[in-house]
Amino acid sequence: xxxxxxxxxxxxxxxxxxxxxxxxxxxxxxxxxxxxxxxxxxxxxxxxxxxxxxxxxxxxxxxxxxxxxxxxxxxxxxxxxxxxxxxxxxxxxxxxxxxxxxxxxxxxxxxxxxxxxxxxxxxxxxxxxxxxxxxxxxxxxxxxxxxxxxxxxxxxxxxxxxxxxxxxxxxxxxxxxxxxxxxxxxxxxxxxxxxxxxxxxxxxxxxxxxxxxxxxxxxxxxxxxxxxxxxxxxxxxxxxxxxxxxxxxxxxxxxxxxxxxxxxxxxxxxxxxxxxxxxxxxxxxxxxxxxxxxxxxxxxxxxxxxxxxxxxxxxxxxxxxxxxxxxxxxxxxxxxxxxxxxxxxxxxxxxxxxxxxxxxxxxxxxxxxxxxxxxxxxxxxxxxxxxxxxxxxxxxxxxxxxxxxxxxxxxx
Length: 412
Fold this sequence. Notes:
alpha/beta, 13-stranded parallel β-sheet, 4-stranded parallel β-sheet, 21 strands, LRR_FXL15/At3g58940/PEG3-like, FBL13/AtMIF1-like, F-box domain-containing protein
């Protein structure tokens, strides 16, 4: 019978030390009472292979492989796991030794596909050529999801096969990664539904637009602080998109997504035509700011999202609304409004919003800090009592910071 650690030693890993000897304790020459058989039962090992492999899929691959030393039952279970998860804590991470380890793992795998490949690099520079090799190998095994997270500013050339992969449905490229998509001859991802592009440096805007146009069924896009050498405006034009998370200080971005149902704009500067009309919008979260000479852009933004049923406004957005002093558009479908205020003395602004939301049923007022002026107690008391009567639900539980001297419960 092969040694239990032979698999791990072939992968340049040290097996876990699992004691096979039971210690016998004696008390006055007598053996300690034997534990009931029920307490000794290995319930996990009795589970079906499919369930155990599903559990192992949540572990880093190094830990999943290590379970092969537990017993004969576990020796080959890791080879059936559909996920591969590598980070820079792996011994000899991202060098030729790791490449051989990765190849050995793939050679021993019995699963017919790779559902998810995760490559996390936080602290150690890696071999750029190896990244392409690993991705190509995974794509050849019908890759479905990939996370590539890197904390270094290197230009990585991903293989052409990744951008023509017929099976991949989730692609996440994150942190300080630099990539030149101009070297990719063709981009066609017929199954890609989720794309995250986070703090990614692109050589030019045409690269990202080529990527968008090559995703005909894309439904979810997370686009965070993408940088480019180009100064001309460019559009996020994805007709099939239903969910968008946008975090970008670049005022050149324009969003053209008529099928959008969920929009989250975070730490983003409002500019002319930031978003087009969104007739199917159901939920919107706005965290925006603007220059003083561009106040009219605030109205354009809210006019574009006026069809939403849920609207969440951050502290900065509330300040933008207060400073802009424009005619707020009517939100005739809005039933749930969530406000994050920087001051408790915002009754006039809330009144303005309520006047433009005829179907509003639920109002959340959250995260208000500081003490309320004594002179404002009476006005605020009357205002909130009115709100409590006209709305179906008024949430004020975290309206004031814990150190305030004002008792919110006294209102009711």
